Amino acid sequence: MDDDVNGAIRNPPARLVVGISGASGAVYGARVLDALNDLGVESHLVVTKAALLTLSQETDLSPDELTAKASVVHKLGDVGATIASGSFRTLGMIVAPCSIKTMSEIATGVTSTLLTRAADVTLKERRPLVLMVRETPFHLGHLRTMTSLAEMGAIIAPPLPALYARPSSIMEMVDQSVGRTLDLFGLDWRAVRRWEGLKS
Ligand SMILES: Cc1cc2nc3c(=O)[nH]c(=O)nc-3n(C[C@H](O)[C@H](O)[C@H](O)COP(=O)(O)O)c2cc1C
To answer: Which of 43, 72, 124, 159 could cysteine-pair with 177, CB 3.0–4.6 Å?
Structure first.
């Protein structure tokens, strides 16, 4: 899938890095993994310790059930993993959800974990980095950090509900947000309800 045998065609591999950090909304990360499975896209997952806390507080999923959704699971401390190198080709990375702590680490280039290292690599390779930042309200420092990340090329995509899609459940709202962020990688997930103009 990566390259053709002669090396003449070098398509980007259908492979996405997925980070799940400890902001509210672990279900977004879980649904990203479900969507990538539906789409036949290889997922490389890295999860923070705080994300395991939110997972247990907010969902019925166990850590094993979450990681079983991923094609490859990387340890948070494994900075020698494939996704820590820009030479490992991917479509980009999504952090779903993205905590203020993880966002701030990415913005400063501190990269003390594999998650933030992989995000830094995604930025330096000029691949799409989508951050589903979740906090409210934001203080000026949060907003400045988001501006700085946007200037570096990251896409700030907070998981805000699209009420025009008339969701009838929380999962429909989650899936709409997940699908719209996957649009940013050129991935078209069936769960997205697309605007078809005003109804007469
Ligand atoms: C139930 C729960 C909900 C949380 N929600 C948020 C949130 O929405 N946004 C945020 O930035 N931090 C939130 N936090 C705090 C983060 O988990 C905490 O700052 C943590 O250090 C983030 O670490 P990480 O970025 O390595 O995952 C929450 C924590 C818990 C336990």
So the answer is: 159
